[in-house]
Each structure stands twice: as C-alpha cells, then as structure tokens.
Amino acid sequence: MPSMRWSTKNVDSHFSTKIIKKHCGDKPWFNGRIRILILRRQTAFVKGDKVTLCSLRNQVAHEIISVKKSYYAGRVRVLQKTDPAGWHRNVRNLANMKNSELTIHVEGIDPSNNESIADEINNHLSSFSQTQGPIRLRDLPAYLPAQYNIPEFNLGKLIMNLGRSL
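Predicted structure:
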C-alpha cells in the first residue's frame, strides 16, 4: 500500500485535479468535452460573439453525434445479441423515448383505483357481448372446416423432388 500512496501523491503534485459533476439526468454518452464546449458556447452567447457562437454550436452538434455513434457501437450494439432487453432500453434512451404511465380515465372512478377501473371495463364488455346474438356458423365461411380433404405430403420427399428438378 505505501507505493500506491506515494504514486498518488506524485500524480497529485504534477497534475491538477479537475472535478466533473455528473447529473442524474445526463445521458450515458454525455462527457466532459461536450460539457466544456457547451460552456464555451454559452460564454460566446453572453458576450455576443456571433462568429464563435456559430462555430461552437456546430462543434457541440458534431461532438454529440460522434459520441453517440461511438457509444452505440461500443456498448449498445453488443447488447443486441447478449441482452435484448438492455438493448431495447438503451435504444429507447438514445431516442429520448420515455416510458409513459398508462392511465385509463373512467367517469366517476378515481384513476388510481385500478381494481374498480378493471371491474367497470369488464362490466362494459360483458354487457356488450350479452346484447349480441349467437354466432351463426353459416355466416362465417372462413371458419368452417374445409369441404375437401387436404392432401398429405412428406417434407423430405418434397425437398428431394425439388432438388432433382433444379
């Protein structure tokens, strides 16, 4: 352990320490270089330097595009084969697609009372189905059994015959 303390002490004496804050809302690909470019862009905006502002605006956009590509290639694409759920989550994150909570509004029922909402939907659907008459099979020809026998075939023989004909 003394060697670690010694090397850390030497590193601290030769290099300045820079603290970069990471916010909980930051994208995973958002890095310090983008943050610095945005800070410089905002400084140019406040000073009214239009030439520098336009240049830094383009640099920020290009940096975000390149960092997103490298992040996707390095981390997200690997998940497509190994962890499809994680891949889907990361793709949704990259596309800024948030999971919205489904709320069903039923008149006269509190939206947070899921059991009452489910009961009301069930009552509505069952009352509708009770008003319908019985199904007449003659009106549904697509669902009737075929009037002729379907020929049977052997898949292996079929493939061999196809191979011979080519």
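Summary: Residues 93 and 114 are 28 Å apart (CA to CA).
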